Amino acid sequence: MRQRKEKSVLFLCTGNYYRSRFAEILFNSVAGKMSLPWKALSRGLALERGVNNIGPMEVTAIEALEARGLRALPDFARFPIQVTANDLEIADWIVALKHAEHLPLLQERFPAWAEKVEYWRVDDTPEVLCLIEREVMDLAARLIAGRKRKEAQAIATETAALVAKKEVIKTSSPVVCLGRETKGRRGKGVTTVSDVPLDEAGLLELAATLKQRCGTGGTVKDGRIEIQGDQRERLATVLESMGYRVKRVGG
Question: Among 210, 172, 178, which Cα is nearest to 194's?
Fold first, then answer.
């Protein structure tokens, strides 16, 4: 059987330290699982602006990828790379993660490409990882279907809908308690998730998902979920991405 030629998608952000790196690694994982003949790379438009970036890649992004089962990847160790004209020329699809931030940079440094790029609206904050994941999955679906890149108006409409959804979540999402317990456990503490508005079957299903995301064991006991180890930061991210509001309790 004749193999399909692999194509490339290029993710761009400002410093190639956080957003585009997360998108690159996640996309390659999704493409591999879907047998998509696409390979992602990522680059930065203005590495000189990342004066506060420490190390090869943002730790929060690495932790989020590890929570999704992507661990100890060589991509975590490489340092940010400045985009070149050649990178843009050889890419089959180009995505800039933030329209308002990256369009001016492209107009200034690579004006011939400014109108050839698909722009997302992903802010430079840790809370956007779930949005990037959603956009990556949407991009993969569009590539499978052979659809064209998003137009600016469509992206603006989706963004407005997402903002409205977040406002609803703030006022209506259930609050769950996230804590840490070590007493009587011989040094082997657990992270607890309590006050979850689910029945026993729902708690077991949620516990299975949380254990998978953390890559560790756990159980449901007395109406609360216990996950082995100190998983508070990771579980907070996962639970918030599922629509819960997290209240930290204890030390």
Answer: 178
Looking up tokens 């975590």 gives 76
- Tokens 């609206």 sit on residue: 121
Closest CA to 58 of 133, 12, 126, 121: 126
- Which tokens go with 180? 């840490």
Which residues neighbour 159 within 8 Å (Cβ) at sequence distance 6 or greater?
121
Instruction: Please give the DSSP secondary-structure letter assigned to residue 82.
Output: B
Work out the percent of the chain whose per-residue pLDDT is above 90.
55
Whether the model clears a pTM of 0.90, i.e. scores above it, the answer is no
Q: What pLDDT is stored for residue 216 in this prediction? A: 86
Amino acid letter, residue 111: P
How many of the other CB atoms lie within 10 Å of CB of 151? 11
- The three-point CA angle 25-30-218 to 5° equals 85
Q: Calculate ∠ Cα 158-163-165, nearest 5°.
A: 95
